[in-house]
Structures are given as C-alpha cells and as structure tokens.
Design brief:
The structure is a homodimer. With about 150 residues, chain A is an alpha+beta fold. Chain A has a single domain (about 5-145), classed as Pnp Oxidase, Chain A. The first copy, chain A, has helices spanning about 5-10, 60-65, 105-120, and strands at about 15-20, 25-30, 35, 40-45, 70-75, 85-95, 130-145. A seven-stranded antiparallel sheet of chain A has the order 2-1-5-6-7-4-3, sandwiched between helices. Chain A is globular. The model of chain A has no long low-confidence stretch (mean pLDDT about 90).
Chain lengths: ~150, ~150
C-alpha cells in the first residue's frame, strides 16, 4: 500500500502515537493529535498545558538530534477479528509560524485551520505556532485477518 | 510516582503501545496486550496470526540488539480534560517456556494463566511460549489537569 493511500486511511483518526529515539537508543512514545496536509502529517506542540518549555520536551529534543520517527494509528477492540494498525516511518522536523504573509506562513495557517476543523476542542484551547511536521517514507497496514 | 504505583494503575488496561529502536536510531511502535506479574510487564509474541517467524519480527530484532524500550498506556477522549498517559522506560528481554518443571517454567506458566484470566480471547487463540519481559526503570504519569 502506498503512502498516499495510507494517509487517506488514517486521516479520520483522532489520536495517534508518535515514537522518537534519543542518541542513546532510548525510544519514547507520546499520544498525539494530528492533521494531514497533502503528504505531510502535522502534530501541534501545545494542544494541552505544558509544565516545561516546548524546546525542552523530550520528543522535541529527540527530533532535533534524530529526525527518525514512527507514527502509528491503530484500532483495539475486544473482538480481535477487528484489530488493525497502520505504521508509518519517516522524518520529523519542527515548523513554526514566524513571518506574517510569507509562503511558509500560509502553509502553517492552513494547518492551523485544519486542526480547528478536525478538533472542536480547539474552539477553547490555544493551538500555538509550532508543529512537528512528518514526511513519511514507508508505511504498512496490518489487520488481524491476513 | 514510583514504578509499583504506576504498574498498579496500568494493570486494568487492555492495550498498550511498545516502542523499540534499531541501531540506526529508527523507532518502531506496536500496539500490544500485556499482563503484569510482580514488577515485570509481559507481552505475548503470538496473540495474533503472524506472517513472519517470531524471531524475524522487527520488535524482536530491535530488542535483541537494543533492549531499551518505552511502554505506554493512555486514554484519549473527546473531553480533553480527561486525557492521561503513563509512560514507562526500561529494558526488554525475550523469555521462553522451555523446560517443563523448572523454576523459569513455573513463572511462565503463571504469566500464561494471567493472560487467560485477563483476555477472554485466549479461550480461542493460542498464546504461545515466547514473551517479551519488560523491567521498568522509570515512569511517569501525565494528565491534562496538571
């Protein structure tokens, strides 16, 4: 299954899991909300109260040293016949809404709007201006009945 | 929060996420079922049909080269006030039921029984004899309202 088909499948999911790894090979997982714009996945960095500054978050520090990430959407049910997951592997970078009016700014505004449309919670919660942007290189789909 | 308290909290959860990393720093995620015996987490390696031999599974190859793992249980709801997650970091190893009657065998039998008790699905699905055993070293609990 190609990346475009996989991205279409995961688009409606509300939550996903992001794995990063630090240079000592220690993996790290965070549950994340996300939107897809064209072939990129975007994850906000302040959809919830943070007790540490964004740049000090473990996932951010990991990505800055090691951009390789795994991104997963899955379905768990008591009926195991209906289990499935989608795993994407790729590279992450941080993108920030900086210059008002620039091309980069337009793209980020679009991402911002996609979040507001997908998550009604953002009518009350500030999204912020920094996002993790994932370029997926490979992906696969697994289901119980294969 | 200490590891014992965290393990108590995650015990009832039916599904968790396991992250491993290979030597190129590429992280990998798998949704997993699990049980807890004393201070260890056990994950079966054949609770679902596999198209590749167990030893060829990416998570198994990763663990054999790099035992560092992250293990996460989380709750996603539309009401973000109720979001929480628990993240554990530790070491993983493979354990196998080999000798009938030995001490190791008794421990694995207990794990086997814990799975049958926790997951009614195992009345129809074979559990197998190989498990990932995680020794958690550090953990933390996050909730939205902090």
């Amino acid at each position: 299954m190609n990346i475009v088909s996989i991205l279409k499948l995961i688009r409606p999911a509300k939550v996903a899991h992001l794995a990063t790894a630090d240079s000592s090979l220690q993996p790290y997982i965070t549950p994340v909300v996300f939107v897809i714009d064209k072939d990129k996945i975007f994850i906000p960095l302040d959809y919830k109260p943070k007790t540490v500054p964004i740049k000090q978050l473990k996932r951010v520090k990991n990505i800055q040293k090691n951009p390789k990430v795994a991104f997963q959407v899955d379905n768990y049910e008591d009926d195991w016949q209906r289990l499935w997951f989608i795993l994407l592997m790729g590279y992450a970078e941080l993108v920030e809404q900086k210059e008002v009016g620039g091309d980069q700014d337009k793209n980020i505004r679009k991402v911002h709007d996609l979040f507001i449309k997908k998550y009604i919670q953002y009518s009350k919660v500030e999204i912020g201006t920094i996002f993790i942007k994932i370029s997926a290189l490979r992906g696969f789909y697994w289901q119980y009945n294969t």
